[in-house]
Amino acid sequence: MADISAQLVKQLREMTDAGMMDCKKALVETQGDINKAVEYLREKGLSKAAKKADRVASEGVVSVEVAGDYTKASIIEINSETDFVAKNDTFKELVSKTAKIVHEHSLSCTEKLHSMSVEGVKFEEYLQQNIAKIGENIVVRRIASIQADGKGIVNGYVHSNGRVGVLIAMKYGKDGSKNACVELAKGICMHAAAMKPQVLSPAELDSDFIQKEKVAIIAELTKENEELKRLGKMLHKIPQYISRSELTESVLAAQEQKLREDLKAQGKPEAIWDKILPGQMERFIADSTLLDQRMTLLGQFYVMDDKKTIAQVLESKSKELDDRIEIVQYVRFELGEGIEKKVEDFAAEVAAQMQ
Description:
alpha+beta, 3 domains, three-stranded antiparallel sheet, disordered C terminus, Transl_elong_EFTs/EF1B_dimer, Transl_elong_EFTs/EF1B, cytoplasm, EF-Ts_dimer_sf, protein biosynthesis
């Protein structure tokens, strides 16, 4: 029989929250192999930490770390079952230590995180100890890190409630542009936190997806027009296009030609057409990129200058700095997005427990 120390039993108990005698028996049965003992307890249904892993964890916190020189940044989402636990000091310490490990090692994969060391044990074991201590399922759901290459910066923002975080990486050509990019990136991060763009650019939207969304958007606007007509208000224009990726050179050229013909029919002097056309083309593009405005960062109108899209803001800043400024990476985490929360029927739950 293997010599089972009290320290080993204590360690297993912290990892699983199982009873002391159950932990000792598990270690005896597995010849002191703690990993096998964890599995033994799980198989016997004695590991409370394992049982907690079945519960839906959709609360928690999003945390962002940015290097002082803006050369790298990281973001993590750690979930708990309740908002109450998310405010617990032990949970906050777990988040802090996890964020530090992810940032220091520029991790973007939870599997790699679980193999890292913290307080002398593997992170996976450290997490199990905290699950047992806190009494709720805790999940490191996702992590991401960005490192700036060459002439580039990374900045980030996390909303004060810890539910939304954003990272943005920018590239520039001149050393003197760095500080301006740091400031602009922070502002755009704040915009993205509020406006929820799903992707960076229209190029990331699949053509089949665009066509499906076009049907939905047209139906939505048509329905809204019924109410607007009843109220005697201006109706929405029903778009032929909804994304910049649909606006090919030939489409734009055909639209410009149509606008020229309209100006001619209106009797506008040809000498002023070139002053009128740019504004009309901008309006056409805005009316034809509704999907981009909803889903893409570059296609949205900037909250701090709502007459310009983020793409136009970057163009303006490039001209101001006599440089080429562009966003090269964008990451946004919103707490619990995509997690299906379990809706409990309290009466049914009580009845089930009384059976």
